[in-house]
Amino acid sequence: MEQQLQQDVLRAVTGAFEALAIASGPELEQRVRSLSWVLSPATILHARTGDDELLSRTREALTTFVASGFSRHDQALPLLASFRELPPFCEAFEYLRAVGSLDVDTESRARAIIAASADSHLGSTDWGAHNRATVDAAGFYAAADSVPDHDHAARWRGYGDALIEDSWGRWSIEDASIYGPFWLFYLITASEGLGSTEEFLQKITTRYYFEQYSRLLMPNGMLPDWGDGDWTHMWTWYAAVMIRAAGHYGRPDYQYFAQRLFETHRAMGLSGNDVVGYSPDGLQTGDELYSLATALRWMALEPPPEAVPYVLESSEEIVDDLVSKKIAFRNEGGDDASFALLNYRDPGPYGRYQREYQNQQLFAFEEMPHHGHADENSLVLLLDGGTVLLADGGYRRTAHDGWRADLYHNRLVARLGWPNDHEMMPYLQGNPQYVPVRTEKIHFGTFGALDYSRTRLVDEDRGYTGDRIVLFVPDTGMYIIVDAVHIDREGPKSFTNMWHPDGLLAQGGLADEGSHWVRSWPHRIPIRNEYWTNPHGRELLVQFVGNRDKYSQVRRIDRRFNPSDAFFQFLYGYYFAGQRLGFVTVLTPYATDTFDENLLNAVEILQNGEGSYRTLGLRFDVGGGTATVGMKLDTTIGLTNLRGRPMFDWHTGSVDYDGLRTDADFAFVVDRGKQHEVGLMCGSRLCWEGEILFDMPKSEHMYQGPVDYAVPERKDRMPRWHEVVSHRPRHTPGAQT
Question: What CA–CA distances, in Å, run from 129 to 159, 171, 434, 525?
């Protein structure tokens, strides 16, 4: 990777200098202005090669750039007012000055431009643990280092100290794929200016984000999109910071992450696919050139180990359920494996005064401060066989118009009230403002034949609690999404089960029970002005099951800078506290041109608590066997031992799911004839067709309470269990079914 990267950077820098030499008119002005991203890479190359001609051309280019930064009255202009460009320019300026390559006049004028640029930001602090604050901090530090004798140097450094404080050793308040690596990259740059890189890289929060990025790598060598994100725009920054981490920590897996991103996007760009960073002409000369050249500089500073591939073939929580709040669903299959990302990140219980400040100083009411979306409990991306089947909402078209709102994501959408004309989409679009909610993980587990998660969203403003349950079948790649709603406060409400498959190929009649479905394949993924060409190896069946009282619609809307297809189902009415509602969605990827109508019968609802949605039973194929699944959507069922403890009781808490009987919050049995695969979460017993397959022994040691009373047949609950048992079930002596 290093040799190829150096060749690409050299070709890009050389091409930029050659184009500058022959440009004239408006093109010349544009070429000169873009040098802010080229100069630092040129000096990085010179440090590695010692090429005198390259040094000479770099000096000439910087001189030309500086000459363009003065008014007719010879006043320095804030040419680097975009502070992302200020550290790169300062790096080039200091390098050329250190090697004695600048004349007195050019040095003086460069210092004046740096000072004017730094002063241009003194009136706006824009603070908080987010990318703009760390970019500005790095810029102020760079200016103070480059022009240390300026009257404002101490003030610049003070601004840098003030802005970096919220991020130094702390969590980011941005849940946005495009801005995370910006934030971290410029934190590293700032730490270099402070001489505190070692301290910064050892902080647990710093190491956390490197680890989070490494777990998000998709089977096709790309990264998912969430929050404010322009899908292929940020890979160079991710690669750069991970190379820094690989070298410092000696992590070959981090080096593999960076190398895989580099090789994947480079190959796509050179072949003509629309990705930022590379085109058929090679490496582009914007900020992607600077970020990748900085990766070269960091490789020289602390050489990374050789890349060693690491395997991501199992579903997992992405690091944790407090800050990241993401779950990746995966299976085996190499580059063609399935991948889905559930994002349940809320604003979080930290950084409150920073988030409040952002709401006070920015007119951006659709975003979750800061740069986040209303994508809590959203399936932000689904990939199978290298084909993107569901994508995130995109960014924004203008400062006040975009796709951050909940309705532009694959999630349950709630409103107070409903449309009188039965047209749900314009009703939702008329109220896109972000409403703060709280989320938390309830369950997550991998159980061989079935992966399972349950994440909760509490919306106090609209008076409901929504649990999203994801069942993933690794052997077949099928997903079943259950959205269980509990009404916390009575009133008029509507709930919409929203999906954005895009590129519809066919749809059902949306009337009879089995007709609520669409089939889709998006032939391209819009970004901004780019269109990523989507392979056609897979198509997607999106089906709603259990459709009583529900309305389904297909509508064409504006999303991701383009017209897009939305498929959704909704309920509305005056609901009372304690009522429960439920939606069941089946997502079935299938190989192109192999759709079989039998797929429409793949999932059977065994019971839904007689319409109460306190419980839900499902049956479906998991590859080589049939799974029967039971779930308590109301986990208070069976909490009937009120005098002593444990409160839970098998006799009142067990539920029948057509052959499966259990008191577990979640349980399943896969019947494979001679073997039964069982799994559960939070249960004491599991029976299949009258036979006990799992049973907790009675406990004599559980605390009973302050009075002389013993709960009969007291059993503890197993938090999770997975086992394959023979066709002769085990029995616990004295156990009852």
Answer: 14, 7, 20, 30
Residue range 375-409, pLDDT digits in tens? 999 999 999 999 999 999 888 877 667 789 999 99
3-state DSSP of 151-220: CCHHHHHHHHHHHHCCCCCCCCCCCCCCCHHHHHHHHHHHHHHHCCHHHHHCCHHHHHHHHHHHCCCCCC
Tell me the pLDDT tens digit for each residue of 72-121: 899 999 999 888 999 999 999 999 999 999 999 999 999 999 999 999 99
CA distance 287 to 301: 21
- Residue 201's CB: how many other CB atoms inside 10 A? 18
Query: Which amino acid does the sequence have at 166?
Result: D
Tokens of 11: 């070709």
Residues 6 or more apart whose Cβ sits within 8 Å of residue 105:
none
The reply to whether domains 2-301 and 320-593 share a CATH topology is no
Q: Whose structure tokens read 């079943």?
A: 480
DSSP state letter for 83: T
> In whole angstroms, what is the distance from residue 46 CA to residue 494 CA?
63
Residue type, 543: Q
How is residue 304 written in tokens? 């990374």
Give me the helices (H) in 202-306, please. Answer: 204-214, 235-249, 252-270, 287-301
CB atoms within 10 A of CB 101: 18
Give dist(CA 256, CA 409) in Å, integer: 31
- Nearest CA to 570 among 558, 552, 597, 584? 552
Mean pLDDT of the chain: 94
Percent of the chain residues topping a pLDDT of 70 = 98
Taking the C-alpha atoms of residue 428 and residue 386, their distance in angstroms, rounded to an integer, is: 32
CA distance 378 to 344: 7
Distance, CA of 358 to CA of 281 (rounded, Å): 40
| Full-model pTM | 0.96
Using an 8 Å Cβ cutoff, are 293 and 300 in contact?
no
Token look-up 């990264």 returns 223
Helix/strand/coil for 133: helix
| Fold classified for 320-593 | Beta-galactosidase; Chain A, domain 5 (2.70.98)
381: nearest Cα among 273, 469, 499: 499
- CA 399, 403, 404: angle at the middle one, nearest 5? 85
CATH number of 2-301: 1.50.10.100
The size of the chain, in residues, is: 737
d(CA 497, CA 582): 10
Q: List the domain boundaries for the chain.
A: 2-301, 320-593, 602-737
Higher pLDDT, 156 or 72: 156
Hunting for tokens 């156990």 — which residue is that? Answer: 735
pLDDT in tens, 643-691: 878 899 999 999 999 999 999 999 999 999 889 999 999 999 999 999 9
Rg (CA), the chain: 29
Helix runs in 371-500, H state only: 424-429
Task: List, as one string, the DSSP characters of 447-473.
Answer: -SS-EEEEEEEEETTTTEEEEEEEEEE
Amino acid in the structure at residue 12: A
Place of tokens 């190379």: 243
Give the residue-averaged pLDDT of 485-496: 98
Among all chains, which residue has been given the structure tokens 């004046």? 112
